[in-house]
Amino acid sequence: MKLHEYQAKGVFADAGIPTPDSKLASDVDGVVDAAEEIGYPVAVKAQVQVGGRGKAGGIKLVEDADEARDAADSILGMDLKGYHVDRVLVEEAVDFVNELYVGITMDRGEGKPVAMVSTKGGVNIEEVAEEDPDAIAREHIDPSFGMHPYQARKAVYDAGVDQSVARDVSSVLTTLYQLWDDKDGADAEINPLMVTADDEVIAADAVMNIDEDALFRQPELAEMEEEAAGGDELEQKADEYGFDYVRLDGNVGIIGNGAGLVMTTLDLVDYYGGEPANFLDVGGGAKAARIANALDMVFSDDNVDSVVFNIFGGITRGDEVARGINEALEQFDEIPKPVVVRLAGTNWEEGMEILNEDLVTVEQTLEDAVQRAVEYAGEVNDQ
Ligand code: GDP
Ligand code: MN
């Protein structure tokens, strides 16, 4: 579970990490009011759970009420990398001279958490890791003993952080580790940790991912989950329908009954040169209404150019699913995106006969079905 920036900042601030003054707003007047209260200049920041918001136009620095209004107008309601922006964080702008990176994550190779520090903050840290791995200092931590203060100082020293702020950065790093440990963090990250001309350090961004399996013992964080889910309308819809759904970056929509089937389909789409748009498991009992809901979800994702069904009949028989698919598609005057179906298992032959080939493309094998869907998606891209 990923916290929003404003939620993570709240958690960090409670633990004593310096954060800028800020307020959450969801309409233009709210943004202006918040900005007046905090005092200009302020940063207006889209609250969606993707990185690189700055580059994508989701963060604006404003000097007065007019600019605040314009920024709120353009950011609220925008589509940021597939996420609908319905709230912004209005935040005291930080006048910085340097941007650092500090983070804690699990190093699965070593089986230990690792603390990371870099003076190349403010940019995508994965890129730094690839292009200039030595620019990130790393210190592994033994979870049974926690992070020793000397380990924090060593990481900060190794990264080449200026002497004048080394103490404060070490202390932020130690606190971040403590939080990661106490809150069952999967990752905790501050990028950038800004350094001001007066040698103050302040967390200008905050990322905190919580281990889902530990949420039962983190009731305060679990409460944030519902709020955190906000923003992605499709993920909310999936919750309502009771589907397992994950949005991905590609354009081939995938629907299957069973997590394993869906995973296999994702792999095959990738294998045949396509890119999956989503993971969608409709689960057992895939009757007409459920199929219609699944199609409705996948069709309403603008990134989707074709859809592939991978259905294995078990308790839910192939003929029932086939009727469901027909019924769902008959509601459209025009099918929005080409649909390919592969049926196997109980009553698959009846199912194949029932499927209306004016509405869908039917393939015998999963390989053929996936290849066809990838082809359709590619044709849309070529236009
Ligand atoms: P991300 O791109 O989604 O990770 O969003 P960040 O919160 O990290 O902001 C991206 C960049 O916007 C930062 O590295 C800064 O350069 C700039 N920025 C964000 N907040 C402020 C601020 O308060 N003052 C100034 N000057 N720049 C800011
Ligand atoms: Mn950032």
Description of the structure:
The chain is α+β, with helices and mostly antiparallel strands and 383 residues long. The chain has 13 helices and 18 strands. The protein has helices spanning 5-14, 28-38, 65-75, 125-131, 149-159, 163-182, 219-229, 233-241, 259-271, 288-299, 318-330, 348-354, 366-382, and strands at residues 22-25, 42-46, 59-62, 79-80, 83-84, 88-92, 96-107, 112-118, 136-140, 185-196, 201-203, 207-210, 244-247, 252-256, 278-281, 306-313, 339-345, 361-363. The strands form 5 sheets. Strands 7, 8, 9, 10, 11 and 12 form a 6-stranded antiparallel sheet that branches. A hairpin with a 4-residue loop joins strand 7 and strand 8 (112-118). Helix 2 packs across helix 3. The site of manganese (II) ion (MN) has 2 residues, from loops. Guanosine-5'-diphosphate binds at residues 43, 51-54, 59, 61, 91, 93-94, 96, 99, 122, 191-192, 204-205.
Secondary structure blueprint with pairings:
Elements: H1 5-14, E1 22-25, H2 28-38, E2 42-46, E3 59-62, H3 65-75, E4 79-80, E5 83-84, E6 88-92, E7 96-107, E8 112-118, H4 125-131, E9 136-140, H5 149-159, H6 163-182, E10 185-196, E11 201-203, E12 207-210, H7 219-229, H8 233-241, E13 244-247, E14 252-256, H9 259-271, E15 278-281, H10 288-299, E16 306-313, H11 318-330, E17 339-345, H12 348-354, E18 361-363, H13 366-382
Parallel strand pairs: 14-16, 16-17, 17-18
Antiparallel strand pairs: 1-6, 2-3, 2-6, 4-5, 7-8, 7-10, 8-9, 10-11, 10-12, 13-15
Bound molecules: guanosine-5'-diphosphate and manganese (II) ion.
